[in-house]
Amino acid sequence: MGNLKLPRMLIATAAFWAVVSILNATGILNGYFMIIINRSLIFVILAVSLNLINGITGQFSLGHMGFAAVGAYVSGSITTLIFKLSPDTLAGNGIFVVAIVIGGLAAGFVGFLIGFPSLRLKGDYLAIMTLGFGEIIRTILNNIDAVGGPRGLLGIPKFSNFTVIVAFAFLTIAILRNLVQSSHGRAMLSIRENELAAELAGVDTTRYKVLGFIIGAFFAGVAGGLLAHLLQIAHPTQYGFYASALVLIMVYAGGMGSLTGSVIAAFTLTFLTEGLRVGIDWLKDTVGLPVGTEWTMVIYAILLILIMLFRTEGLMGMREAKILIIAEETK
Amino acid sequence: MKLFAMVVVLAVLFTGATLVSCGGSTEFKLGGVGPVTGEAATFGVSTKQGIEMAVAEWNAKGGVLGKQIKLYFADDKGDPAEGATVYTKLIQQDKVSAIVGTVMSKVTLAGAPIAQSSKVPMISPTSTNEKVTQVGDFIYRACFIDPFQGTVGAMFAFNDLKAKKAACIFDVGNDYTKGLSEAFKAKWEALGGQLVGYEAHATGTTDFKAQLTKIIQQKPDVLYVSDYYNDVALIAKQARELGYKGPLVGGDGWDSPELVKIGGAAVENGFFTNHYSPADIRPIVQDFVKKFKDKYNAEPDALAALAYDATYIMLNAVKTAGKADGSAIRDALAKTDLGVVSGQVKFDANRNPIKSAVIIEIKGGKQVYKTTVNP
Questions:
Q1: B88: nearest CA in chain A?
Q2: B88, A272: Cβ pair inside 8 Å?
Q3: Between A299 and B52, whose confidence is greater?
Q4: Is residue B362 part of a domain?
Q5: Of chain B's two ends, which shows fewer C-beta atoms within 10 Å, N or C?
Q6: Which stretch of A85-94, A223-232, B137-146, B328-337 has the lowest confidence by average pLDDT?
Q7: Is any Cβ of chain A less than 8 angstroms from the Cβ of B21?
Q8: Based on the domain organization, do B44 and B100 belong to the same domain?
């Protein structure tokens, strides 16, 4: 029953949306929770799409935020510099969604460009090349005056809200889930497991590696656009190596190749950072321990080390939640 | 199931901790933001020290509005996304009445719209991007914006150095140095000085002789160099080699020990504008430097001084307003006229401070306080 594939996920997402919206409206979840949830969802898009490149196709990208930068600047330029939109109008919101998709397409095109030379490289060498790519994007943005240069693209209207971000996150997971469990996805997985064997079995490895980069980059671009319209600023330094590494950590902590894992890790690590912030404040003020905010990063790092020590394969390993397995639903 | 249990435990810990952190109203809640970790950590640490010292002094004198001040300091890591998060946390979770922060313009620009829409007044100690205060009427800053230094440099060269003919050299690919030179030029011509040279150079170049030869042929009395210290040192050396003996003037991009190391004798007879100098002889400055050294065992830099000032300006406005109400504090901020470490502060219509700048001279390889210039 192919037509049952979507509803279960859709219902779960709609329920999540409804519960959070109601809790927000009644004031139980304040703006602080909402911004953490919004950022978590944007990280979900980033981690899931990087998982397609690193976890599913078995390539190694260290420049994922470079794609996000392309999406952020392209969509930000459309809404801010070309149309000068205001978030109050319905038409403005329509153009915003189109701008996000165009930003994603631009990032996808860059993914296509980066995918080609990367075919000649493997493992560490590919990682270094993608790292270089991320820095190139950052340097180029630093030197384009039209989008603010080193001062960043400023005054972006605040279009991103919980509903829009949930919708995009849902679409990303749904599309990637269907892709991974289709014959195309199997082909990508086969490249990860053994490229030579895949080629011998008739898989067009060139095509699928480039496809992995293009699709992964597209969704990263979407996430970048959403983030820019949430923070109302896009700045070259936001998309550097450190940010890319953070997304990579989420993929590894969640489990390479597990979309569920990426979703859980994106939420867990984002909430963990904030939880530690609040927890440290509490230790300092209520318990009276002499700890400062800088300790959050220390504890965060220790927890990451512990996760990797005791669950080397990540929180989920290679498993998926039932809701993300198509075969389970069609039984 | 193990995973589910972990998520539940995390969620419980998180909500538990947030619930506990809600306090009573027996204290005045002040938010502080700075990057104490990340690429700009040294800026953040200085800022935090400045704010904490100011809050401790106010509390020792009885606090504000008859309540003790409780500081909620949050780390923005120098990242706009973190900035937006911590501003929201301070306002919505900790319910602070005012915010002092943050350091880097890009982060302040992500936080300012949140403060503005929640009507929580904020003052950034050191964000120089002019767009920061344009976000709205609740957003102030304690530092002067970049072009102001060009204006002060021109006044100093004209009034104190008694120069009549000036020339500028600047980096065409850098907003900061371009902005300073443009402001210098405008003020210089308004004062009635003669501008005999206005030369740009490319970013990253090390040979400035073509531009300098052209300038020096016009025999200027003063050379305005708005570059950063590494370029300044090279320009100074090459200008001296070409026979220029007059004074050099510049902005706070000069403020580095490297300037003298690279430039040596060539940067002698050089002057630059800065926010504050620990060598300033005014008692308020000397008092601040002494207290800071006692507390932290280090010489306060400009970031610490400006954070200290910003906190004083904000708390003074709260005191004037007489209540912990956002709009009342904002109105009191607009009427600020307060003597602080970095000068006498008033605000213009764009919520930028009108205040004095200090001039520092390079003398015998050291930075020496020269004078204070009022705009």
A1: A32
A2: no
A3: B52
A4: no
A5: N
A6: A85-94
A7: yes
A8: yes
